[in-house]
Amino acid sequence: MYTYESEGADISAKAYAPGHITGFFQIHEHENPHHKGSTGCGIVLNGGVTTEVKVGQSVEETDIFLNGKKVEGKTTRTVVDMITDLPVRIRSFAEIPVGCGFGASGAGALGTAYALNRVLSLNQTVKSLTEYAHVAEVLNCSGLGDIAGQSNGGVVIRLQPGGPDFGLVDRIPAPEARVFCIVLGEISTDSVLKDKAASGRINAAGKVAMSELLKKPTLENFMHQAKEFASKTGLMSSRAKDVIEVANASGGMASQAMLGDTVFAVAPYCQEFPLFEALQEFGQVLEYNISTCVPKLMYE
Question: What residue numbers bound the domain in which 180 lies?
């Protein structure tokens, strides 16, 4: 725990962390949050969350803002509490939807850890900062595996659960591809993870999906297994099913983001226009790329 008496002007730092969409997963409970997490597979996006952290005489209490609005920010606040006793002002700006399966809470937690490390001159490694974010996500039931994906970039297979001290990941060597998303609504990650019946269906389907993916670790097979998982778990909404069918008929590969009522569709660059045009009938189409980006500090 870091604490000091501020002697002068405010100090600030800014960090960025990418978004992450999970296609399928399996829950691994453990009384130790460093061990708890999920296995599964997901894609990292080139859109994420930028977080600015400020400490100093003008900051009298810890406040958290998201896109200009003051929020509770439980996961981010837990990161702060684990690192310092100082009051901190945190301003996050999201390029990705919040509460819809894009890993926004994980991205905010990672950015906060990185920026705090900078302003407080803690000189901690990436592994340590990632561990803070993972534990904060698990303790607040805001996510189980996004941090592992966001910390590695690309199409990430989470082979063993937990933070970086215990988890194990690999990556699918996927080609560059566009990711189109349609947000249909929100799903509470907390409520699903605490539902024993839902958790049972998730774990059964997630185990099968992982087994099948490892037989043929390709982007195409990942998307197929993700769609099967969403259907088998009962998490796929009827509207999401309609969007997925249209996307697949238009040359894309589509499934539902976990956990969110969001459809994500992947297409090679040569097939992106027909897919984009078909998805427009369902609402605003958000456009990203699969990215190998990882969390990073940003300089003014």
Answer: 174-289
